[in-house]
Every structure is written in structure tokens, then in C-alpha cells.
Specification:
Length: 148
């Protein structure tokens, strides 16, 4: 009987130690903002750094797809802001990270709106940027342990 009590007493601290380590957030070693910055710069990269391959691939495909569809619909990429709505559009476009800078460098999305679908294309580009910002924040939250 004494041996069973010793086994139970030995098993309790081991199980408590295991539950404590399981409930603690991931270690904060390294640069915790790397997934946030990488996720903003390159769509899906923050999740790829965290080895979330499926989620990163789906986000990258969605953001890139929306951006390309927006350009194909002759949507415009905001270059400057003359009023509040242009400023909000510029902020949304900047959310796409490197896609914004590449499109500005290549002159994509710079034409004047000529067709009705171009307005929808512009919105696709803005929403792609906003989705990318949300994905980058999600990668940061995964890295810091706020989300599992």
C-alpha cells in the first residue's frame, strides 16, 4: 500500500509540471516582431516563419489573387492622397507590402479609370491590403502566444 501512495505522490508533481509548461506562452526569445514585419512585407510569410504552411499558403494565394484580379479589372493603385478617402485607400494599398511597391515601380494600376469594373478593381486592391495587415497581426499573435 505504501508503494501505491509513493507512486501517486510521484505522479502528481510530474503531471503538475507538465500542465504548467503546457499552459505557459511560447518563449519570447528572438525577435517577436519578425512574423509581423515579414507578414506585412510578403503576404503569408509571417505564417511560413511559424511553420503554418497551409494557413500561410491560403493567405498568400488569397491576397495575391485579390491584388492581381484588382489590377486585371484595371483598378488603380493609390499614389497620393488628396482627401480623406484617398488617404484611406492609400493606407489600404500600402497594406499589401511589397506588392504595392512593385506595382508602383512597374507603373501598374496607374491608368485613369475608364471602365466600370475599374472601381471594383480598386476596391479589390484595397481589401487585399487590409487582409494582409490582418494576416500579419494574426502571425504576430501566434508568435507571442496570444492565439494558438
Amino acid at each position: 500500500m505504501a508503494t501505491q501512495e509513493n507512486k501517486n505522490a510521484a505522479a502528481e508533481p510530474a503531471s503538475q509540471a507538465g500542465s504548467k509548461s503546457a499552459s505557459q506562452p511560447p518563449s519570447a526569445e528572438g525577435f517577436v516582431y519578425l512574423p509581423l514585419i515579414a507578414g506585412w512585407a510578403i503576404p503569408g510569410a509571417g505564417h511560413f516563419l511559424l511553420r503554418k504552411w497551409v494557413r500561410g499558403s491560403l493567405l498568400a494565394a488569397s491576397i495575391l489573387g485579390m491584388f492581381v484580379l484588382g489590377l486585371r479589372m484595371q483598378g488603380s493603385v493609390h499614389a497620393d492622397a488628396h482627401n480623406l478617402l484617398d488617404l484611406l485607400g492609400l493606407i489600404g494599398d500600402l497594406g499589401t507590402g511589397i506588392l504595392y511597391f512593385v506595382s508602383r515601380f512597374l507603373g501598374l494600376g496607374a491608368a485613369q479609370v475608364q471602365v466600370t469594373t475599374a472601381d471594383w478593381g480598386t476596391r479589390f486592391i484595397v481589401v487585399a491590403g487590409l487582409l494582409n495587415v490582418i494576416a500579419a497581426v494574426d502571425a504576430h499573435n501566434l508568435r507571442t502566444g496570444r492565439k494558438s
